[in-house]
């Protein structure tokens, strides 16, 4: 369990980090937040299915999801009000504001019934956010708890860089630290444990010689 003070502190930190970055975030991140579109393509959202993004940021991924799965109902939560404001404007520009439901919430403990009037989702995804969330394993467990029967949790983030030169990994990790980002090199191990506890199955996929990775937990 994480207290109210921790939730507010982390939300305030994210607001400070992204207050100005949010205006050019998508233009810069496309060069190194690799694997996002591959993850979205692999969602296989059923017709009329529901999709929740945890840490929805600017709304970029949800708009991409809508383009690929036009009948989906989309939802997003974030702990940064600054990012949520940007996501709302992006949805309005894309003409999907009536299809995209956004809410301020702490992903480690949230009530989708209170936020959106529904109990679960067919697909939940987390894109380059577990590396920024201190209690990331609790967030993944919470996400699995809100999957509908047959639902899937997809997580894409930085990999362990094992297939890349050591100097590249050292440089990348130093740079990421400036933005409060910590790659979770035990993501696959944690996903296996979380899946086992939930009676689900976990799959792992390594991209770009370890630069990025995708973890999927599927409920039976």
Automatic annotation (TrEMBL):
GO biological process, one term: methylation
SUPFAM superfamilies referenced in this protein's UniProt entry, alphabetically: S-adenosyl-L-methionine-dependent methyltransferases (SSF53335)
UniProt name for this protein: Methyltransferase
Keyword Transferase: yes
MF (Gene Ontology): methyltransferase activity
Gene3D superfamilies: Vaccinia Virus protein VP39
Organism placement in taxonomy: Bacteria, Pseudomonadati, Pseudomonadota, Alphaproteobacteria, Hyphomicrobiales
UniProt KW Methyltransferase keyword: yes
Ranges of residues in domain Methyltransferase: 51-151
One Pfam family this sequence matches: Methyltransf_25
Record organism: Paramesorhizobium deserti
Entry keywords, A to Z: Methyltransferase, Transferase
């Amino acid at each position: 369990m994480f207290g109210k003070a921790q939730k507010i502190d982390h939300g305030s930190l994210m607001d400070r980090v992204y207050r100005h970055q949010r205006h050019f975030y998508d233009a810069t991140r496309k060069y190194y937040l690799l694997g996002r579109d591959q993850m979205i393509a692999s969602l296989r959202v059923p017709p009329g299915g529901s999709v929740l993004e945890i840490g929805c940021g600017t709304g970029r991924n949800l708009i991409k999801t809508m383009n690929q799965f036009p009948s989906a109902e989309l939802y997003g939560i974030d702990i940064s009000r600054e990012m949520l404001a940007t996501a709302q404007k992006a949805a309005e520009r894309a003409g999907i504001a009536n299809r995209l439901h956004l809410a301020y919430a702490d992903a480690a403990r949230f009530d989708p019934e209170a936020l959106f009037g529904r109990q679960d989702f067919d697909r939940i995804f987390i894109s380059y956010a577990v590396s920024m969330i201190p209690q990331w394993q609790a967030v993944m467990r919470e996400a699995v708890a809100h999957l509908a029967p047959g639902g899937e949790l997809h997580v894409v983030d930085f990999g362990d860089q094992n297939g890349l030169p050591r100097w590249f990994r050292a440089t990348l990790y130093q740079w990421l630290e400036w933005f409060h980002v910590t790659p979770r090199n035990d993501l696959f191990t944690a996903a296996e444990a979380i899946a086992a506890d939930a009676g689900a199955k976990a799959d792992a996929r390594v991209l770009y010689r370890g630069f990025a990775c995708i973890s999927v937990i599927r409920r039976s």
